[in-house]
Amino acid sequence: MNAPESLPPELPSFDNSFAALPPAFYTRLNPTPLPAPYVVGVSDQVAELLGLPAGFVASRQFADIFAGNALLPGSEPLAAVYSGHQFGVWAGQLGDGRAHLLGGLRNAHGHWEIQLKGAGRTPYSRGADGRAVLRSSIREFLCSEAMAGLGVPTTRALCVIGADLPVRRESIETAAVVTRIAPSFVRFGSFEHWASRDRDAEVRQLADYLIDTFRPQCRAATNPYDALLRDVSTRTGELMAHWMAVGFMHGVMNTDNMSILGLTLDYGPFGFMEAFDAGHICNHSDSHGRYTYRNQPHVGQWNLYCLADAFLPLLKSPEISKAAVDETYGDAFAATFERLMCAKLGLRQALPDDEAFIGKTFGFLQQHRPDFTLFFRALSKLPAAVDSENREKTDSPLRDLIVDRSACDAWLDNWRARLAQTPWPDEERQAAMLAVNPKYVLRNWLAEKAIRQAQNKDFSEVGRLLACLRRPYDEQPEYAEYAALPPDWASGLEVSCSS
Ligand code: AMP
Ligand code: MG
């Protein structure tokens, strides 16, 4: 496979930082070509982050390169090895079974590794086909960019390239490749892999690589490895709080899907909370409900304990390793969650009783099951004070979401009493609340609508959704229908691990 002939001269060149690790960490191999590829969607923001010229993005070469049919100059693709716990059970060796790391580049926006997902088999494919289907590639593409728009740490996605190549899942579908970027795709499972084989030197090499490349501040600590584990643990706690605050459910929080950098990674059967139910299972394959909304913070911690075990060769003592998680994760989660929830509720300053009020609010949501996103958006627009005659009308946008109106009024009374403890002019508070309570999230029915059209070769809905989800906190009246509850046809939608 050669570089395409006429690449623009201003394309960035690769520095392949991950490839500086010893060869045991990966296998070099080229993607498998995808016949007659076409562009399904492109994130202009990510193209800009990478410094790709607009002319190149619009060129024929673009589809070829991000389908895996041609290589950018300097790119030496590789697939990385990792292991992991899946659904709480040790799964042994996994690895990039359908991902090719093209290389990394450094620019003014940071260090980005570019990865194709779905570009063919690798030594880690374990008998599977190395492909991804259009449906799951569109979901990963849109959700990566939607999460970035929401301000949640995440890997990003440059584009989806489709092709007519048939791919067998429950039925025959077509192939697609999604290009993801992140500073690093290293996972908890990347450490577990070497620790499970008693390969202490590799555990150390991986930790040193991460510290030197991404967390140089850890090097100054008394124990840099302890500092690294604490960093991962803190960021994971913060990430879980972000997920909970936007109602995001990952669906497959296996340790091989947990990012060492604290990013949302590997979008599969994810979901956004609609009618609130803390026990909601968004992944049809998760029969025991391990990854429900309410379990996510616990699972984050469980996964960190797996990582802490894998750090034993570096930290020598299980107590030290466990303490690195225990002394950071819970506090990072609680502090971030409380900060985000106070902002969602329009509380100008935190008060000691807010934790209890937030807890009561979740109890109220659980009992009355309003749409999570619409609830906080409607709340954002309500005034801090109402007189009793006008109350029904003034509060109707929120009351209409809840069948039991008197329970709603009672909760609103508590909310208003709390607001009064830290007064904040309505206009300022409402603006602040609207800036943290999204109007638009990637509801399953929205993704499904874009997918169905794309399966009929109409990619316009992918582009429209991307444009809308870029600015989830803005009113965008032209996209108002995207803020709606799922229509009847979408009531039985199910998403599974099949992708
Ligand atoms: P996931 O559940 O998507 O995180 O995948 C778990 C593991 O299975 C990862 O190592 C993937 O690379 C691998 N995998 C998933 N689907 C495929 C596929 N179609 N071909 C090859 N490997 C796959
Ligand atoms: Mg995965």
Could you write a compact summary of the structure shown?
The protein is an alpha+beta fold and 499 residues long. It is built from 19 helices and twelve strands. Strands 2, 6, 7, 8, 9 and 10 form a six-stranded antiparallel beta sheet that branches. A two-stranded antiparallel ribbon has the order 1-3. A two-stranded antiparallel sheet has the order 4-5.
Outline, from the CA principal axes? globular
Q: Which segments are poorly predicted (pLDDT under 50) over 5 or more consecutive residues?
A: none
Hetero groups in this structure are: adenosine monophosphate, magnesium ion
Which structural class matches the secondary elements? alpha+beta
Would you tell me the overall average pLDDT? 96
Report the span from N to C terminus. 27 Å
Instruction: Tell how many strands the DSSP assignment holds.
Output: 12
Your description of this structure?
The strands form 4 sheets. Strands 2, 6, 7, 8, 9 and 10 form a 6-stranded antiparallel sheet that branches. A two-stranded antiparallel ribbon has the order 1-3. The protein has a two-stranded antiparallel ribbon with strand order 4-5. It is 42% helix and 13% strand. A hairpin with a 3-residue loop joins β9 and β10. With 499 residues, the chain is α+β, with helices and mostly antiparallel strands. α7 runs antiparallel to α8 (296-310). Among the domains are: 200-338, no CATH class; 349-423, no CATH class. Bound molecules: adenosine monophosphate and magnesium ion. Adenosine monophosphate is lined by residues 94-98, 124-125, 128-131, 252, 256-257, 266, 268, 497.
